Amino acid sequence: MEVDHIYIGTNNPDECAEKLIDFGFTEGSSNVHPGQGTSNRRFFFKNSMLELLYVSNVEEVINSRTSPLLLNEQCNNGQNTCPFGAIFRPSLQSEQAPLFDFWLYKPIYLPEPLSIKVAPVIHQNEPRFYYLDFAKNRTDDDNSEPTTHKIGLENIFQYQITVKDHFPKSDFIETMSAETEARLIYGDDYLIELFFTKETPSNRKDFRPTIPMIIYW
User: Fold this and answer.
1) What is the pLDDT of residues 142-160, one digit of tens each?
2) 3-class DSSP state of 215
3) 209 with 191: CB under 8 angstroms?
4) Quick check: bond before 209 cis, omega within 30?
């Protein structure tokens, strides 16, 4: 299991996207999620994708199908909810089962029989975790989205998510930190840190307060 992409819930996607573009990232295509009530702005890399997720239809995002995902809360800082989500895919070893317990979410925008495996919400302060068993590894051959950026960054090698307040970590969070590129730590505020290098970083960019994100390369 490995990270396919991550999202940051926001109620100000245009300002967030402009910050990323001004920095030197190239924006890819956007999506609307019919029936789910969300849309996005996306930035692609050779092995991952950064998604700015926002509410575009309030009625849909709070309906009985979608509301258990807490997307409305994530995008609008509701109930002090963590704004981050991590979406996993099978690794190159081709395992087909996620490392967490799950329930099946079947959005209307996915064709049958596809569904999304969703980890139960143990605590509002945890990120949301999803698993796409139909997702493929992102490669140059099958990625039609732009992955070349003026800043020259291509691959995300590590994701570190800081959550507020201490709470008992679910078993999956411990497993995730040990067996995937993502790890979770405690801190004073929500923050996601993306590492575009496997070595000790020599550069950093802090996008706060617009985006709760720091990148290193």
Assistant:
1) 668 999 999 999 999 999 9
2) strand
3) no
4) yes
